[in-house]
Design brief:
Elements (H helix, E strand, L loop, with lengths): L22 H17 L13 H7 L1 H26 L6 H30 L3 H28 L12 H21 L4 H14 L21
Subcellular location: Membrane
Membrane topology: Multi-pass membrane protein
Catalytic activity: K(+)(in) = K(+)(out)
Amino acid sequence: MSGHEEHPVDDRAGAAPTTLATGRLEAFSDGVIAVAATLLVLDIKTPEGSDALWPFLGHQLPTLAAYVTSFLTILIFWVNHHALFHAVDRADRTTLFLNGVLLLTVTFISYATSVLGHALQTGHNDSAAAILYALTLAAAASCFVALWLHLGRHRELLSPQARPRVRAALRRSVTGPVLYTTAALLALASPPASLALDAGVAVYFVALPAHLRNRPPRRDPQPPA
């Protein structure tokens, strides 16, 4: 939970708040993202009857590969979401709705992962499944671009330290949709290679971006005495 005070910017009596602190938004987002990550494991099957464990797991490798890629990707989305809202002092209605669309796409990842894992195991419609999977990740990554674009137009929502770094953050966020779209195109030729590129994008975003390095910690506003 954020340490921000949940009070409106507009303090006039009876006035509706125009912005709010990000604590509730972050808590809700953390819960939704945690559920999305948990749902991924439900598609991994267990051996039945006399099935030998290692051959069974070998048969499950495509599903396991999709699971690991998706979990790592959701983890990276969560880390980037945390970094983004660490830079935000206040959220307006547009920010809330854009964040909601981001959560919608993140929760859909579990379905796309299930479809891809099954398709890679059976060899049926694997190209279409890999395209669906890559485009789902591209949609989620595009929500980060939309958030940064909105925040760039309304820099009063950002902490003073973060305002000069908006362009760098936006440039980095565009990388995700571009690479995931490339993975969707690659799926036409090789679904496994497309999944490998999806995993590579997640690894790329593990590194701390330059615009967040050596950044002074944000001071949360102190409650009135």
